[in-house]
Amino acid sequence: MATITAQMLLGQTHPYDGGVTNVTHHVWLTENSVARWTLMRIDDPTSVIRWIPHPETMLEDGLLMVGLFVFSDSELTSEAQSVLGPLLEVQVMPSDIEIREKLYAINRKQMPDLKVALTIFEGSSLYSQYNVFDHYMGWDVEVCLSQLRREKPRSGWFVSRT
């Protein structure tokens, strides 16, 4: 069964506190045998887009999906359609790193009005990838990492502090 290992909320930056307001989109990463990003508009839960990221660049593939379907940059959309073909509701990212890097470079230049609030749960593959935000200097971001995990499994409590 797929497990949600990370989620993004997209909305407005709060003027003097952390967090995010006026959330417009929810994006989550599920991982198991195949990782998958799922993007959904808050005001239209039927508008769902799913992308299968490349294992080495899962976060950047998720940010690319956000750049294409939420920020709707014309340069990025044009380039993506020229290398990926029609942008589909279910998309598998190409294995060719040069293609992906070209798209990432365009996406990194964007100056979106929305904030990305990313929560990464313990065990997520994104733990080793969230430093890519260093390349997204025009983006408002907040990364939240798991600090405490307490679960009641079948035999006793499990506690993990990171």
What does this protein structure show overall?
The chain is α+β, with helices and mostly antiparallel strands and 162 residues long. It has one domain (3-161). Helices cover 23% and strands 38% of the residues. It has helices at residues 58-71, 74-84, 97-108; strands spanning 3-13, 20-31, 36-41, 44-52, 90-92, 115-120, 140-145, 148-151, 158-161. Strands 5-4-3-2-1-6-7 form a seven-stranded mixed beta sheet, with helices on one face. The chain has a two-stranded antiparallel ribbon with strand order 8-9. Strand 3 and strand 4 form a beta hairpin. The protein is globular. The mean pLDDT is 90.
* Strand-residue proportion: 35-45%
User: Treating each run of at least 4 consecutive H or I residues as one helix, how many helices?
Assistant: 3
Tell me the total number of β-strands.
Answer: 9
Q: What is the distance, rounded to the nearest whole angstrom, between the alpha carbons of the first and last residues?
A: 25 Å
- How are strands sequenced across the largest beta sheet? 5-4-3-2-1-6-7
* Radius of gyration, in angstroms, nearest whole number: 16 Å
Order of helices and strands: EEEEHHEHEEEE
Itemize the secondary structure elements and their pairings.
Elements: E1 3-13, E2 20-31, E3 36-41, E4 44-52, H1 58-71, H2 74-84, E5 90-92, H3 97-108, E6 115-120, E7 140-145, E8 148-151, E9 158-161
Parallel strand pairs: 4-5, 6-7
Antiparallel strand pairs: 1-2, 1-6, 2-3, 3-4, 8-9
Helix pairs in contact: 1-3, 2-3
